[in-house]
Amino acid sequence: MSMNNYSQEILANMVFEFIFGCAMRDAILQQAFKGKKDWVGKDKQAKIHLRKYIDKLFENEFKTQQDHDDYFLKTANAICKSINNHKTKEATDSFSFGNAQKLINMTAKYLYIMCYSSPELRNRFRFCHCPLDSIMLKTVWKQYGERNGSAIRRQELNINTVFCASWGDEDLNENGVQLEIKSFPARYAAFQKAVKELIGENNIYSIEYDYLYWNNNLNSENV
Known about the structure:
Layout: H1 8-27, H2 44-58, H3 65-84, H4 97-112, H5 134-148, H6 150-157, H7 186-199, H8 206-213
């Protein structure tokens, strides 16, 4: 591409492509997605769905948490449907809500970096979620227990299965097919609710909680 063909739109598209690639790698890391992976990030329609969410974010179209969450769920369902409709014969896994939430949340997390030099953009991320992965599940489990007591932690967070179990299979049915979901999976909802309770009145957003604690709790285990 010649420099003579440069435009802000082209550059913006290339920046999004780069961030999408980074976030997709986070979404299908190791145990989060099994089998061949090279086909997953090639679905163009999935990129379009995610780009619409991001554009709405930066255009400040989400006015309430419910407004944001409804569109987040719509985007996650659309991404899963599009990617899984284009599975290759060699694929051994399906793209689940667990993968989709990581893709969406990590894309937002990478774009949040813009707030480093442009703090006026921070408010755009006020409704964003904390990415759910094994490190943050363990962090929330530990902090929630320390604040509320282990009995409360077990009662409120241990939803049908171990709270800190692998996140990649979130909301897959028994045949490994992602179905459209009408509400957030119980463990994901419990995780986001606990994050908000841990934040309390500290004037930080859920996505910032991830920045504060993920690196501090990084270990050698798979994310």
